[in-house]
Write a structure and sequence with these properties.
about 550 residues, Rossmann fold, GMP Synthetase, Chain A, domain 3, 7-stranded mixed β-sheet, about 20% strand, globular, disordered C terminus
């Protein structure tokens, strides 16, 4: 067996995540979260105090007239966009031991109903702007308002004035609790449920434990990311319901004592650049579509980021040329002598840990995802589970303290992805070079099979994004019954909508693309222009929706 790992030791204590997060001697008056669009903040002490009161409320709901008390066997469903009180709820879950499921704020009623049923949630915290979606989801679950009225509160930092209860009402009515102990073996208990992106089907609930959270925190402090002895400010427009929002924007910065700047409004490049400057961001977490906007938008050129140390791009693949362009765009605008950008590789199933690519930009290896994070082991295997020769591509398997407990209520899916000795089959095809740099090529299930050749969609997308007219791109394989094979098929959106008037543009882009790839990577299924390429909130191409576009084109009547 060939096992790849870093020779950097990482000690992972079996302790409660809440205890770990607040273990450092840091001033309670320091800001913990800042909402940039309103310039409002919550301090570290306020956040901890409110979380302990809300956790207490979870355990004594009957005294508050909110129905039966919650236990470790129950679940809270949190359904909200970014909000200063979002981390209050996730921390209250850790303190009380009552699991919380972080539902996507972009979920439609059917998706939300699936999450409610999957988690068996019996208490609900909902943002007022999403209440109609929530009610529609509950209706799909067969539950009328009378059945859940007392079991739902609004996520708001204000006391209720109109009859509906809010999280602040529960906090105000409760005394702070002593955090429940999850040391030792109890640290392996699942406490937060994150939902997989569902790009190929209904989302699965990923079970993350106290031990997973502590492991991720210790690993991130062991890599060349942000020294604990340097003042820091994290900034990101990413959603807090995503695992990166909870792990990298909530728990890790709290442990380090860094404030996190978040946005409650939809992403706007000018607002984001302004916030990075205004709050002197030292570390920024983004996804590929945001990286492209920062590369292209003129507002960046005149900005200055004197303390910026790291830009991390993750959640979906970014090409080497784009990462290099991002580095070159920002380098003249920062003062930090060790400014680097990095492609973060991780999965919800690995608690947002895998590899970090800062060494990639330091040594010019922009195409790589960097070196494995300490505390993780990796294998590269073929379709039969055998190790591939060094330097060859294979499916990446990972093992370590960050690997999830499993998929909630889905033993088959859990057994399909986890081996009996703890290896997680990522489903990603990757290589590891002689210097232990990891390069993820594409998803195993997304590889296009053209006449026996394997075609990685991400590679073709990266090339298409270099065309001056292309704003975004997604590539899928469409089965051709006539040829009995899959044909690479591209969908692009344009930087300027007026370009759609040029009916020859798809052909021109295809002709530009063709000489840059091998014969088996040609776009034999065609190239089509969409208003937007469908992506998840974290930047993943929604290939299922692209297949629906392709099916609609195939069945449309021809005039």
């Amino acid at each position: 067996m060939t096992v790849y790992q870093r020779d950097i030791p990482v000690s992972i204590p079996e302790i409660s995540a809440f205890t770990h997060i607040f273990s450092q001697p840091i001033d309670d008056g320091r800001p913990a979260f800042i909402e940039a669009s309103t310039n409002t903040a919550i301090t570290r002490g306020e956040l901890k105090g409110k979380a302990l009161r809300l956790g207490s409320a979870f355990l004594q709901l009957s005294k508050l007239g909110r129905g039966p008390d919650l236990t470790e066997q129950d679940a809270v469903l949190l359904f909200s966009p970014n909000n200063l009180f979002y981390p209050v709820v996730t921390l209250a879950s850790l303190a009380s031991g009552v699991p919380v499921g972080c539902a996507s704020a972009a979920a439609v009623p059917a998706e939300l109903a699936h999450m409610i049923v999957l988690t068996k949630a019996s208490f609900f915290i909902v943002h007022p702007t999403l209440f109609e979606t929530f009610k529609a989801a509950m209706k799909l679950c067969g539950l009328p308002p009378a059945a859940y009225g007392k079991r739902v509160v609004f996520l708001s930092s204000k006391r209720s004035l109109s009859g509906e209860s809010t999280v602040e009402d529960l906090i105000a009515a409760s005394a702070p609790m002593n955090p429940v102990n999850f040391d030792g073996e109890r640290s392996k208990k699942s406490n937060i449920y994150f939902f997989s992106s569902g790009t190929t089907g209904l989302p699965k609930a990923v079970e993350i434990s106290h031990y997973n959270i502590v492991s991720t925190g210790r690993i991130w402090t062991s890599i060349d990311f942000h020294p604990l002895n340097e003042p820091g400010v994290f900034a990101s427009p990413l959603p807090l319901y995503h695992i990166a929002g909870v792990i990298l924007l909530t728990f890790y910065p709290l442990f380090c004592g860094y404030p996190s700047v978040v946005w409650a409004t939809p992403y706007n490049v000018e607002s984001f650049v302004d916030g990075m400057q205004r709050y002197n961001a030292t570390a920024v977490l983004i996804v590929p579509p945001i990286a492209l906007s920062l590369i292209r938008h003129p507002s960046v050129v005149n900005a200055r980021f004197p303390r910026l140390r790291r830009i991390v791009c993750g959640a979906a693949p970014i090409s080497g040329p784009d990462l290099r362009n991002l580095h070159e765009r920002f380098k003249p605008l920062v003062n930090h002598k060790d400014f680097l950008v990095g492609s973060l590789y991780g999965m919800t199933e690995t608690s947002c840990a895998g590899s970090a690519g800062f060494d990639g930009s330091r040594y010019g290896k922009y195409e790589s995802n960097g070196r494995l994070m300490p505390g993780l082991q990796a294998r590269l295997v073929d379709g039969n589970g055998r190790d591939v020769p060094p330097g060859s591509a294979g499916e990446l398997w990972l093992r370590g303290g960050v690997v999830m407990n499993g998929y909630l209520q889905n033993p088959k899916a859990t057994n399909d992805i986890l081996t009996s000795d703890g290896w997680l089959k990522t489903g990603d095809i990757a290589t590891i070079d002689e210097e232990n740099f990891l390069s993820v090529i594409d998803r195993k299930k997304e590889l296009i099979k053209y006449k026996g050749y394997q075609v990685p969609p991400a590679e073709l997308e990266a090339i298409l994004l270099q065309h001056p007219a292309v704003a975004d791109a997604g590539v899928i394989g469409i089965v051709s019954p006539d040829r009995s094979t899959e044909l690479p098929t591209a969908f692009v959106s344009l930087r300027d909508a007026s370009l759609r008037a040029n009916r020859r543009l798809p052909l021109e882009i295809s002709e530009w693309f063709s000489p840059q790839v091998a014969h088996y990577k040609q776009l034999r299924g065609g190239l089509f222009v969409l208003d937007t390429v469908p992506r998840s909130p974290t930047g993943k191409v929604l290939r299922r929706q692209l297949r629906e576009h392709a099916a609609a084109k195939a069945t449309a009547p021809r005039l």
